[in-house]
Amino acid sequence: MTAPHSALKLPDDQRIVITGIGLTSPNGNDLGSFREALLEKRSGVQPYEIRYFGETLAGICDFNATKHQSKKDIRRGTRAGSVGVYTANEAIADSGVDWENTDKSRVGIYVGVTEHGNVETENEIYVIKGFDYDTSCWSHHHNPRTVANNPAGEIALNLSVTGPHYTIGAACAAGNAGIIQGAQMLRLGECDLAIAGGTSESIHTFGIFASFNSQNALATHTDPAAASRPFDKNRNGIVVAEGGCLYTLERLSDAKARGAEIYGELVGYAMNTDATDFVLPNPERQAQCVQMALNKAGLEANHIDILSTHATGTMSGDAQECKALRSIFGECDNVRINNTKSYIGHAMGAAGALELAGNLMAFRDGVVHPTINVDELDPDCELPGLVLNEPEQRPQVDYILNNSFGMLGINSVVIIGRV
Amino acid sequence: MTPAEIRVEILDILEDISPDEDLNGLDDQKPFRDQLELDSMDFLDIVMELRKRHRVQIPEEDYGNLASMESTVTYLEPKMKDI
């Protein structure tokens, strides 16, 4: 380590490490293929059509849901649940944990979501429209599908986990928020293994497309792969994506005891609130959140090797985040800054967790994947260390800082250190 | 609908509800629950599908008639004969 972060002073049972990763992204259904797509600059954005709204673009996942679920459970549950079940099973398998002999009452499931229930409610309204809005045709599955804990609950059912399970509703900061919640519960001794991260089924609700469109914040482009273009002068909005990324988090003491492979350690985190607007970000509060995470980690800004930005491709949001980052990293020569939404669009509740996963392998190979689609850098987004359009090899990557912000002014930052 | 047609319709509904099950060997006299993994939500699906597809209303006190294929067809015959 080039910098002694604060977590090193903690006992091993208070240090939280990532030991398994399960994910589905529009451009990959496991960490290896996702990472490969990022280094090969392969987009996962495709043409998409959804009822009422019509033709648009989206990041669409093609994971094999029946790998871990029966067709009946897929039918009964939700897309977010299926994403969760797939990614949770993949994370456990990746962790190498002896799942059969794991005490399921000591496993906690903490799943970040931007929203949940819109898809299922829209579907039911569509169905009863065909019956002249006769509510006796409204499905009895609607409530279990739309309760806010659904995606986490479906994972618990599938894996027979009897420890705590719930979702963390945190808009587009949810992926980081899920990780933070999992770490806190491990530190409190409320569970011994946390399955934590975020999921999104948002491309299946026409409302999210219609609402972003009404806000003039939905991306359009003749080339789907070029539609998501954070930091580019000609960006014109968000590409909505589905996806999921769940981690197995453990105390370092437990991970060491079983000889687990460790992807990284959560060395710092922070969450705060703008309290200024429903949708417009507040760079002062975002910067404060980043600084709080650095302070918690005991790190200086220039210790960060990769900064994974939240930027979604909106004119205002990208510039505001860059303003916030400039106030902290403006004089740094070490940090390299990238954006993963430029490949996959905005995976909403999964975004923070997925974007972190896309960067984690840099601890091993030292390569920073670039922000793609930046044909003309917006001067308002200029920052030292932007990695644009081509990957950059670094001598060593020790710390990754991951931003994830959301509506109603919710901000989250996690810092992961190489172990 | 004839009893044979009603049986085909129920089988179609069961295929939707239990897509993982093989319904070829279904014994009409035996209760569904002895042969298939069906719970109360699945039986509500049968009720719902009949309502949606044919506007057949099945009051809660009659749910017991849906125990087996034979009892279901017998129960539905007067309700669906004019469909």
N/C terminus separation of chain B: 6 Å
Q: Which ranges of chain A are low-confidence, i.e. pLDDT below 50, for 5 or more consecutive residues?
A: none
Q: Largest inter-chain interface?
A: A-B, 12 and 12 residues
Give the overall form of chain A. globular
**Mean pLDDT rating of chain B:** 97
Taking pLDDT < 50 over at least 5 consecutive residues as the criterion, the unreliable ranges of chain B are none
User: Helix/strand/pairing class of chain A, anyone?
Assistant: alpha/beta
Overall body shape of chain B:
globular
Question: How would you describe the overall organization of this protein?
Answer:
The complex is a heterodimer of chains A (419) and B (83). Chain A has 14 helices and 15 strands. In chain A, 32% of the residues lie in helices and 21% in strands. A 10-stranded mixed sheet of chain A has the order 5-4-6-8-1-9-15-14-10-11, with helices on both faces. With 419 residues, chain A is of the alpha/beta class. Chain A is globular. Chain A folds into 2 domains: 16-257, Peroxisomal Thiolase, Chain A, domain 1; 265-417, Thiolase/Chalcone synthase (Peroxisomal Thiolase, Chain A, domain 1, 3-Layer(aba) Sandwich). With 83 residues, chain B is mainly alpha-helical. Chain B has one domain (3-19, 38-80). Chain B has helices spanning 3-17, 32-35, 40-54, 69-80. In chain B, helix 1 packs across helix 3 (40-54) and helix 1 crosses helix 4 (69-80). The model of chain B has no long low-confidence stretch (mean pLDDT 97). The A-B interface holds A 70-72, 75-76, 127, 131, 136-137, 139-141 and B 16-20, 37, 41, 44-45, 48, 51-52.
List the helices and strands and how they pair.
The complex is a heterodimer of chains A (419) and B (83).
Chain A: E1 16-24, H1 31-39, E2 45-50, E3 54-59, H2 71-76, H3 79-95, E4 107-113, H4 118-129, H5 142-146, H6 150-159, E5 165-169, H7 174-187, E6 193-200, H8 206-214, E7 240-241, E8 243-251, H9 252-257, E9 264-273, H10 283-297, E10 306-308, H11 315-329, E11 336-338, H12 341-344, H13 351-360, H14 362-365, E12 367-368, E13 392-393, E14 399-406, E15 410-417
Parallel strand pairs in A: 3-7, 4-5, 4-6, 10-11, 10-14
Antiparallel strand pairs in A: 1-8, 1-9, 2-3, 6-8, 9-15, 12-13, 14-15
Helix pairs in contact in A: 3-6, 7-13, 10-11
Chain B: H1 3-17, H2 32-35, H3 40-54, H4 69-80
